[in-house]
Design a protein that fits this description.
The longest helix has 13 residues. The chain has 3 helices and 8 strands. With about 200 residues, it is an alpha+beta fold. A hairpin with a 2-residue loop joins strand 3 and strand 4.
Length: about 200
């Protein structure tokens, strides 16, 4: 065993086929203001809004990065936020929830589940989220990970297909897009300065 680790992966895992990764299904982040998030990611960054769901009391919106690949946000109203420069360690909680890797189909999900199980990685059973099926596991750093495949790929839908837009009370930015295919305003942001005196 490697020093500092109580368990190691089974050697047989190295003989198993590698997973057929297809990018990031979704990176799940948290926002206290979904309206501003839609205006920034769709309006400023130009990412197509492809789905608006309700996850219990929270909104859960998806923006297309590439075919099959999205960044998604949970709206946690009244959630605190913070700013930090990229790559700098901070002591406060982060705005990151989990990272989901995209797989092409059900067979690939089952193969990954078997690979994780063989390696001694704790993994959930398959979870049916409607248009996405997933399994969940954790990396050695404690980062929550998910592997998913689309049953109904929302990024493959045309803008006129609104079947994945299920939020019964969408934020004003979504209503603007539905009414005029444009946003009335988009937020500007500033760079976060790097901390001084840290090497």
């Amino acid at each position: 065993m490697t020093a500092g680790h109580s368990r190691t992966a089974a050697p047989a895992i190295q003989d198993m086929p590698r997973p057929a990764w297809q990018g990031v299904n979704h990176l799940a982040l948290v926002t206290p203001d979904m309206d501003a998030t839609v205006r920034f990611y769709h309006g400023v960054l130009g990412m197509r809004l492809v789905a608006t769901f309700k996850a219990g009391p929270m909104r859960h919106y998806f923006f297309e990065i590439a075919p099959g690949n999205t960044v998604a946000f949970f709206e946690w109203q009244d959630a605190g936020t913070f700013a930090k420069p990229a790559g700098w360690r901070v002591q406060q909680p982060l705005q990151f929830d989990h990272l989901s890797f995209n797989l092409p189909d059900h067979e690939s999900l089952l193969a990954l589940w078997a690979r994780l199980d063989e390696a001694g990685v704790g993994v959930t059973e398959e979870i049916d989220h409607g248009s996405v099926h997933s399994i969940y596991f954790t990396d050695p750093n404690g980062i929550a990970l998910e592997a998913s495949y689309w049953l109904d790929d929302v990024t493959a839908k045309q803008d006129a297909d609104r079947s994945a837009f299920c939020d019964p009370d969408p934020v004003p930015a979504v209503r603007e897009l539905e009414a005029a295919a444009r946003l009335d305003w988009m937020p500007a942001t500033d760079l976060v300065p790097e901390p001084q005196g840290i090497s």
